[in-house]
């Protein structure tokens, strides 16, 4: 089953400094049919104005993956970590027993991110943070694992959950396939840019596709496209 969730149907709020769209219930937006998708809890599509950002705040017991689509985000936390993650790259924060952090757009233009939260498989571990570059040329015509808690994905940023986050870039007319490990998996696919067909279902840029009971995805680009996919436990 593949359910298209058009961008125009998403919840959200424009706070001036932050224009946020929510694929799942978040903050003031609540939809009982869109609370989570398997272990995937949050997928926010955020546009952050220059010189603004999220001031220090706390999290616990959540895997938080930030995919930077445009601009860059600068992270700082109470563990002493500090770093700038730019467009196309990824940062992961395992909140663990608790972490306090800030995320600011210190760039001259708007920063656009996907913020993805996945429930961890285990609790009681210390928090951690990491960032890694993932050149888009390396993802041309294929999926690359960006963050993962699945054995064998050693080149990805580690997360503490039975899930993986993948990225791909496709030229118009190109096709890529992805095979889930079983029908009990929950997938969620968003084209950051472009237009694609997923097993015959049309998706526009920033639409979501909620995927279940599928073993194989066949994705064909109608236009040049940048894709982000989450494969999570049910």
Description:
There is one protein chain. With 234 residues, the chain is an all-beta fold. It has strands at 2-5, 11-14, 18-22, 40-48, 52-59, 63-70, 72-77, 82-86, 90-94, 99-105, 111-118, 128-132, 144-148, 157-158, 163-170, 175-179, 186-198, 201-204, 208-212, 216-232. The protein has one domain (2-232): Jelly Rolls (Sandwich), CATH 2.60.120.10. The chain contains no helices and 20 strands.
- For the secondary structure, the number of strands is 20
- The N- and C-terminal alpha carbons lie at a distance of 14 Å
**In CATH terms, what is the fold-level topology?**
Jelly Rolls
Helical content band: under 10%
Helix/strand-derived class?
mainly beta
Total of helices? 0
Number of domains: 1
How much strand?
Answer: over 45%
**Average pLDDT score:** 97
In short:
It is built from no helices and 20 strands. The protein is an all-beta fold.
Main features:
single chain; 234 residues; mainly beta; Jelly Rolls; 20 strands
Secondary structure: elements and pairs:
Layout: E1 2-5, E2 11-14, E3 18-22, E4 40-48, E5 52-59, E6 63-70, E7 72-77, E8 82-86, E9 90-94, E10 99-105, E11 111-118, E12 128-132, E13 144-148, E14 157-158, E15 163-170, E16 175-179, E17 186-198, E18 201-204, E19 208-212, E20 216-232
Parallel strand pairs: 13-14
Antiparallel strand pairs: 1-19, 2-3, 3-4, 4-11, 5-10, 6-9, 6-11, 7-8, 7-10, 9-12, 13-15, 15-20, 16-20, 17-18, 17-19, 17-20
């Amino acid at each position: 089953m593949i359910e298209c969730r058009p961008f125009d149907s998403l919840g959200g709020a424009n706070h001036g400094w932050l224009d946020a769209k929510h694929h799942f219930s978040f903050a003031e937006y609540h939809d009982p049919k869109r609370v989570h998708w398997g272990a995937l809890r949050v997928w926010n599509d955020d546009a952050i104005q220059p010189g603004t950002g999220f001031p220090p705040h706390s999290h616990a017991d959540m895997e938080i993956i930030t995919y930077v689509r445009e601009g860059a985000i600068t992270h700082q936390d109470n563990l002493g970590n500090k770093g700038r993650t730019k467009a196309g790259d990824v940062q992961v924060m395992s909140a663990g027993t608790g972490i306090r952090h800030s995320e600011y757009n210190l760039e001259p233009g708007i920063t656009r991110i996907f913020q993805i939260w996945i429930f961890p498989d285990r609790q009681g571990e210390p928090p951690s943070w990491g960032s890694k570059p993932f050149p888009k040329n390396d993802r041309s015509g294929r999926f690359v694992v960006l963050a993962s808690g699945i054995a064998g994905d050693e080149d990805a940023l580690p997360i503490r959950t039975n899930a993986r986050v993948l990225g791909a870039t496709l030229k118009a007319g190109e096709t890529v396939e992805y095979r889930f490990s079983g029908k009990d998996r929950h997938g969620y696919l968003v084209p950051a840019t472009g237009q694609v067909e997923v097993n015959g279902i049309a998706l526009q840029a920033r639409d979501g596709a909620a995927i279940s009971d599928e073993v194989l995805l066949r994705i064909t680009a109608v236009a040049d496209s940048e894709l982000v996919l989450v494969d999570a436990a049910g």
